[in-house]
Amino acid sequence: MLTQRIQAVQPSSTLRITALAKQLKAQGKQVVNLAAGEPDFDTPEPIKQAAIRAIQEGFTKYTPTTGLPELKSAIAARLAKDRGVTFKPEQVAVTCGAKQALFNILQVLVQSGDEVLVPSPYWVSYPEMIRLAGAVPVEVRTEPGQGFQLDLERLKRAVTPRTRCMILNSPSNPTGAILREGCLREAARFLLERGLWVISDEIYSRLVYDAGGSPSVAKVEPALSERTVIVDGVSKAYAMTGWRIGYMAGPPEVVEAAGRLQDHSTSNPASISQRAAVAALTMDQAPVDRMVEEFRRRRDFLVERLAKIPRISFFKPEGAFYCFIDISATGLGSTAFVERLLEEAWVALIPGAGFGWDTHVRASFAAGIEELREGLDRLEKFVRAL
Ligand code: PMP
Ligand code: GLU
After folding, report:
1. Which of 98, 154, 160, 260 has its CA 20 to 30 A from that of 167?
2. pTM of the predicted model as reported, rounded to 2 decimal places
3. Structural domains in the chain plus CATH codes
């Protein structure tokens, strides 16, 4: 009865388990939620105030589909300042979360018979969005031992005459790895030579914990910027996941086409959220720095504590707020591991299977130190008893 299109799509494991953990907690269960893919901080006050003002001023009508001019300007200014890339406001489209930006870009760039390269492990939604665009996801495996950097030989082997584009995600969900400038340059030159497009998901680019930051592929290899679309948003850096504001920046014809698609689906993102996003992007950025500082403290605590647990190994995250943990030595697959951990110890993690790696689980450190401490104590007890 349902279409083949939707029958081929898996549910989102990240959303499912995060919702389950929240539900159990609401029922009074002592769940430690290390599954969440969203900051636990509250949205900073100046952002909330801007939204309240928007409501009070009656700013509650349709806006242009791809966003307010002042929001596009604020996005272009931040991209120039934070990422060192230049876009005119008309090369920017505002979307209902970064998710819609990714979805729309894929709809306008790929079609039936095309292949899209996806470094694995990958964020759960990429393969599904690619399939919904009628195309085929092709994995390019990366290795923890190589810091999850792209392997040029593997990349070359994965390309076929049907390859149309590649998705990059740095810092990465689920590994927290950052693609180095040298690796990006090498890959970019190869993609350029092959005439391929790049979708660069930089939603975690503000959340980086070590010197060097997270370079943008469009900055590293400017020649490729003609065929690069950057995706970002306010969800993660400003603790605004519920406000649903993301954006894309890229070549005018792609951005225009994505806007046309949006005209016939959601229209504009919420007018009130757009006003809030203007405030976020233009305010004094100290609240972002404070959140990054706190995430770094939690990251350091998490890796120190994880190192004491037997039979697991992990990659020290360089950005985002996730740690990808190898549980293969426990003999359990990732789904069984996560289910048993939740049932027996009330700790929620995400199975690696949805990210393409059944040998791993993802822990989020978007949780306070005390919650992390409790979660890790329980995880250690659970692993030792297996
Ligand atoms: N890309 C990645 C890698 C993510 O982890 C997320 C988190 N949901 C998104 C995109 C989408 O973010 P948004 O909430 O802005 O839709
Ligand atoms: N991106 C976050 C995560 O990976 C939020 C949930 C989702 O949208 O997938 O957990």
Report:
1. 260
2. 0.97
3. 4-43+286-385 (3.90.1150.10), 57-282 (3.40.640.10)
* pLDDT band with cut points at 50, 70 and 90 for residue 13: confident
Strands (E), the chain: 32-33, 92-95, 115-120, 136-141, 163-169, 197-201, 228-233, 246-249, 313-314, 322-326, 347-348, 350-351, 360-364
What is the distance in A from the centroid of ligand 2 to the CA of 15?
6
The pLDDT tens digits for 348-370 are 999 999 999 999 999 999 999 99
| Distance from the alpha carbon of residue 12 to the mean position of ligand 2, in angstroms | 8
User: Which residues lie with the beta carbon below 6 Å from any ligand 1 atom?
Assistant: 37, 97-99, 123, 169, 173, 201, 203, 233, 235, 241, 246
Helix/strand/coil for 168: strand
Number of the ligand closest to the Cα of 10:
2
What pLDDT digit, counting tens, does each position of 273-299 carry? 999 999 999 999 999 999 999 999 999
pLDDT at 11: 85
Is 175 a pocket residue for ligand 2 (Cβ < 6 Å)? no
